[in-house]
Amino acid sequence: MKSSEIREKFLKYFESKGHTIVASSPVVPGDDPTLLFTNAGMNQFKDVFLGFDKRPYTRATTSQKCIRAGGKHNDLENVGYTARHHTFFEMLGNFSFGDYFKHDAIQYAWELLTEVFKLPKEKLWVTVYAEDDEAYDIWNKTVGVPAERIVRIGDNKGARYASDNFWMMGDTGPCGPCTEIFYDHGPDVAGGPPGSPDEDGDRYIEIWNNVFMQYNRDEAGVMHKLPKPSVDTGMGLERITAVLQHVHGNYEIDTFVTLLAAAKKAVDAAGGGDCDKDSPSLKVIADHIRACTFTVVDGVIPSNAGRGYVLRRIARRAIRHGYKLGARKPFFHTLVSALVKEMGEAYPELRQNEQRATEVLKQEEDAFFRTIANGMEILERALGTGAQQIDGDTAFKLHDTYGFPVDLTADVCRERGVTVDEARFNALLDEQRQRAREAGKFKMAQGLEYSGSPTTFHGYEKLIHDTATV
Ligand code: ATP
Ligand code: MG
Ligand code: MG
Ligand code: MG
Asked: Where are the alpha helices (DSSP H) in 216-279?
């Protein structure tokens, strides 16, 4: 089954259960200052869960474009390292707004997986929130999942590598206990079952999360009950596709086979010669072209602040990975057309904006190619000293003069087992910001035109220091 058919089957299944099919919202959330990018299917329904907004339906189903590249749900550092994480992915979801609750949600999920998708029951594991006896009993007694494949997991406070059965959209907003379904890819793949010390492998992969939305968390961390208990679920389309296409990782599914081949071709043509087709760098490029294109298509352009800076960081990371494979001239923007061919039918906005997206990314790439060689030389020299940490002054110079976002520098260093002195880097950034503010005040005092906006730096600072919710 192709991924497009899987998406369709999911939506049709929930439509047959009384759900209205709702279109994906853009990756840029319209009116939510707590979010930089859409990170889950429930985002567009946040106000419905909170009781501020009413829809003509109480059940909905979507395939939502999501970006997780910073903040509470941040997978940027996982791309190229795990078989299951993307910065951009599609989240399939079904939602109940005060309609059905735990019983029906669990039974729908089980029926879809085992009867429609026909997954072998013995390969499925489930986790429930530690204290949620009700969910445990539904899985065990009603559905019949044996106790040895049900794991109780508490609140791990969003720890990146630990299962966490209390789902939160961000630091504030709708949240609640959840139950997750895992698929066992078998003993050929490394990793342990959920909740075990080696759960951070790619053997037992979380495919679907069912959240029992019951609270709204405020800025002080206080939980307020929602008007009605609701359901919000999310299943990664790429992950369920891997299972159904009998491959062990997201990068082996139909969509990525095409994008990886296009990435290799583009890198080879730009100087890579015949680069290693299994290089993790190609996966990073194939992943990042999706995140960058969808972001541009939804209205963002690369800049030094906020969303534009996230986009710039992702694009430059991808370009650096191409450079690592030998590319010496722009290649990244040429991948837009391969992506449009692959996903343009499901997302017509890609087709409508193909040319603009190509041009925007080309401009960014042209700019970075002007400085990347010199920047890499400086970084290589610093790495060549054998130091275990790159000093903050070098990282700052790379950032300030060569356009290397600090996470890009850290990405190169990580490949060599080296870290970056980010404390010193941040101190230098603060000093620069302070100087810009002083200069601004001075100019204003003299009645001169003020050209540098301090708010520009706030966005920047936010991203690097408190990593605003993405
Ligand atoms: P993980 O623990 O694997 O990082 P998660 O618990 O952070 O996933 P949820 O917030 O529960 O993910 O999102 C719902 C579903 O979306 C997951 O069960 C998974 O199938 C999918 N998903 C989450 N993050 C990613 C990602 N970065 N790339 C692809 N799919 C993802
Ligand atoms: Mg995660
Ligand atoms: Mg998880
Ligand atoms: Mg989860």
From this structure: 237-244, 254-267
d(CA 184, ligand 3 centre) in Å: 15
Q: What is the pLDDT of residues 1-42, one digit of tens each?
A: 999 999 999 999 999 999 999 999 999 998 888 899 999 999
Q: In angstroms, rounded to a whole number, what is the distance separating the alpha carbons of residues 376 and 285? A: 18
Beta strand 166-168 with 173-184: parallel, antiparallel or unpaired? antiparallel
Distance from residue 86's CA to the centre of ligand 2 (Å): 10
**What element of type H or E holds 49?**
helix 46-50
For ion ligand 4, residues whose CB falls within 5 Å = 209
Q: Which amino acid is at 116?
A: V
ipTM > 0.95? Answer: yes
Question: Residue 269's Cα: distance from chain center in Å?
Answer: 29
At 211, the pLDDT band (50, 70, 90 cuts) reads very high
Predicted local confidence at residue 156, as pLDDT: 64
Helical ranges in 268-405 per DSSP H: 280-297, 306-324, 335-343, 348-352, 354-369, 372-384, 392-402
For residues 157 and 90, is the Cβ–Cβ distance under 8 A?
Answer: no
- Cα 394 to ligand 2 centroid, rounded to whole Å: 32
Inform me whether the pLDDT recorded for 442 exceeds 90. Answer: no
Distance CA(160)–CA(81), nearest Å, equals 14
Report H helices in 58-197.
102-111, 133-137
